[in-house]
Write a structure and sequence with these properties.
Length: 191
């Protein structure tokens, strides 16, 4: 099946493409489809924002569309940055600024209170009344410094055991990540 991967985030698009193509789908990016659209994410949950994006891009592309909304939820910060993960340091800031803010916020938090999880909600829209939603999560901890060169976003700070997401190669990350788990659940539902 040809699928529109509804993301303007290069890192997410790379993961969506890698996982969906392994599932046998041909993935078209927004750039491939010449779609220049940035729907406002007004939802208060990952699921609501994923659905907003999936519906908008399905309508624009005319193709079955898979969108995700995901982020980092840190226990010691009452779930922050959560749905505001991409904008944690403010509008117009990048991953480096978000990571720097997270490190500042976590500076005095002891090791035993550094639990966090990446959360992902995937929404697949095939038409007006044909919508499938799945979620995935990955438990970990927040490091005290950046680790690794792979990945994107908060990956250099998110530790699973002794390694950060940014120290894992793509297939190793996909096997345990929030996005990999959400897409695996979607695959099972679609079978």
């Amino acid at each position: 099946m040809i699928v529109c991967a509804a993301s303007n985030n290069a890192g997410k698009l790379k993961e969506l493409r890698r996982i969906l193509e392994q599932m046998g789908h041909e993935v078209k990016s927004l750039r491939d489809l010449c779609i220049d659209l940035d729907p406002e994410e007004t939802g208060t949950t990952f699921a609501e924002n994923a659905r907003i994006k999936a519906e908008a891009f399905c309508k624009a592309s005319g193709l079955p569309t898979v969108a995700d909304d995901s982020g980092l939820c840190v226990d010691a910060l009452n779930g922050a940055p959560g749905v505001y993960s991409a904008r944690y340091a403010g509008e117009g800031h990048d991953s480096a600024a978000n990571n720097a803010k997270l490190l500042r916020e976590m500076e005095k938090i002891p090791d035993e209170r550094r639990a966090a999880r990446f959360v992902c909600s995937i929404c697949a829209v095939f038409g007006d009344d044909d919508i499938v939603q799945c979620d995935g999560a990955c438990e970990g901890t927040i490091a005290r410094r950046l680790h690794g060169q792979n990945g994107f976003g908060y990956d250099p700070l998110f530790m699973v055991g002794e390694r950060s997401f940014a120290e894992l190669d793509g297939p190793a990350k996909d096997a345990i990540s929030h996005r990999g788990r959400a897409l695996a659940a979607l695959y099972e539902k679609l079978k």
